[in-house]
Each structure stands twice: as structure tokens, then as C-alpha cells.
Write a structure and sequence with these properties.
The protein is mainly alpha-helical. The chain has helices at 2-8, 17-27, 32-55, 59-85, 118-144, 151-172, 179-191, and strands at 88-94, 100-107, 208-212. The protein has a three-stranded antiparallel sheet with strand order 1-2-3. Helix 3 (32-55) runs antiparallel to helix 4 (59-85), helix 5 packs antiparallel against helix 6 and helix 6 (151-172) crosses helix 7. The longest helix is centred in the middle third of the chain and has 27 residues, at 59-85. It is globular. This is Golgi apparatus membrane protein TVP23 homolog. It comes from Mustela putorius furo (European domestic ferret). One of its GO terms (cellular component) is Golgi membrane. InterPro entries: TVP23-like.
């Protein structure tokens, strides 16, 4: 009877390592500065465009300010935040024959590397998708209100942000050639499904998987 009582009261060690790691990936933002600037320039461009008439009557000043913000956003998202937040990078280059090639880099998964967090990945992709849609709304509102002087700026906003969206969707999907199928597949995974921690990898230049398209 005494032995049975001892067996019943034995301590059982529980391993919470996986739960802690999963909670870390879901909640922690590992690159707060990159996350901030990923949204700062594009949101600032939208806010400045909407409110520029309240702050200044100079069309040229507003035009240049918004265009600079869009340019800073394009460069930072293409070269910095995509690499840090989701481990992806893309660019376009012209070879000696004058042919254009899309180059995609994605960091390979490694057991020794901590994956990017789900919070960072969601912020990255939602910011990348939602802001171009807002500029498309601005395009139609500009047409319907006959404010054609802003049309060139709105088209520049759509072009710069859609270029990053296009490049990162292809990069995420491995450089698929059929953009309609790639986009549909990507949006279904990003918007309607919960991202898995293993889908997002730690950024860097080592161990990059390169695709040409």
C-alpha cells in the first residue's frame, strides 16, 4: 500500500518548450524598427495625400512630398523589410543580351535558425496588400471627382506599391510564371488561412535559395 502511494504521488516533468517557442513566434516582434518603417512610409504617403489640402495649398509641395514617401517606401520594402521580416528578396536585372530577368531569393529553413514571427509576417503581407488597394480607390475617386492633376501621382503610387506586391508574391511562390494562379493561391493562404510558424524563415544572406524567372 505504501509503495502504491509513492507511485501515485511521483512528480511528472512536463516539456513546455514547444509551447513557449510557438507563443514566442506568435507574439514577439523581433525587428521592431523594420516593422515600423514597413508601415511608416506607405501610411504617411496615404495620410499626406488625403490631408495635403488642409496643411498646404502648394500642389507642387504636396506632390513632391507624397512621391518621396512612395519612393522611400518602395526602396525600404524591396531591400530591407522584406529580407528582415519574412526572409524574402527580389530584384530585376538585364543581362548582356538585353533580356530582363526576375531574381528571387528565399532563405532556406534550418533547424538552427529561429523562424520569423507570425506577427511580423502578418504585418508585412497585410501592409503590402492593403495599401495598393487604397491607391486603387484613390484612382477611381480622382477620376470621378475630375481632380485630374492628381492622377499622375495616384498612378505612381499604384505602380510602385504594386511592383513590390507582384515581386514578393512571385518570390513567396518560387517565381511561378502564371501570375493569376500564383496570386489566387497566395491570397487564399495569406488572407483566409492562419499562417504557420514554419512558413516564415529567418532573414539573412546565408543559405539563400535563388530562383530566376
Amino acid at each position: 500500500m505504501k509503495q502504491a502511494l509513492v507511485d501515485d504521488t511521483e512528480d511528472v516533468s512536463l516539456d513546455f518548450g514547444n509551447e513557449e517557442e510557438l507563443a514566442f513566434r506568435k507574439a514577439k516582434i523581433r525587428h521592431p524598427l523594420a516593422t515600423f518603417f514597413h508601415l511608416f512610409f506607405r501610411v504617411s504617403a496615404i495620410v499626406t495625400y488625403v490631408c495635403c489640402d488642409w496643411f498646404s495649398r502648394s500642389f507642387v509641395g504636396c506632390f513632391v512630398t507624397v512621391l518621396l514617401l512612395l519612393s522611400f517606401d518602395f526602396w525600404s520594402v524591396k531591400n530591407v523589410t522584406g529580407r528582415l521580416m519574412v526572409g524574402l528578396r527580389w530584384w530585376n536585372q538585364i543581362d548582356e543580351d538585353g533580356k530582363s530577368h526576375w531574381i528571387f531569393e528565399a532563405r532556406k529553413a534550418s533547424l538552427n535558425q529561429i523562424a520569423a514571427t507570425e506577427a511580423e509576417a502578418r504585418i508585412f503581407w497585410l501592409g503590402l496588400i492593403i495599401c495598393p488597394l487604397i491607391w486603387i480607390v484613390f484612382f477611381f475617386s480622382t477620376l470621378f471627382s475630375l481632380k485630374l492633376k492628381w492622377l499622375a501621382l495616384v498612378i505612381a503610387g499604384i505602380s510602385l506599391q504594386a511592383a513590390n506586391l507582384y515581386g514578393y508574391i512571385l518570390c513567396k511562390m518560387g517565381g511561378g510564371s502564371d501570375i493569376s494562379k500564383v496570386a489566387a493561391s497566395f491570397l487564399s493562404q495569406t488572407v483566409f488561412q492562419t499562417a504557420r510558424p514554419g512558413d516564415f524563415q529567418k532573414p539573412g544572406l546565408e543559405g539563400l535559395e535563388i530562383h530566376k524567372h
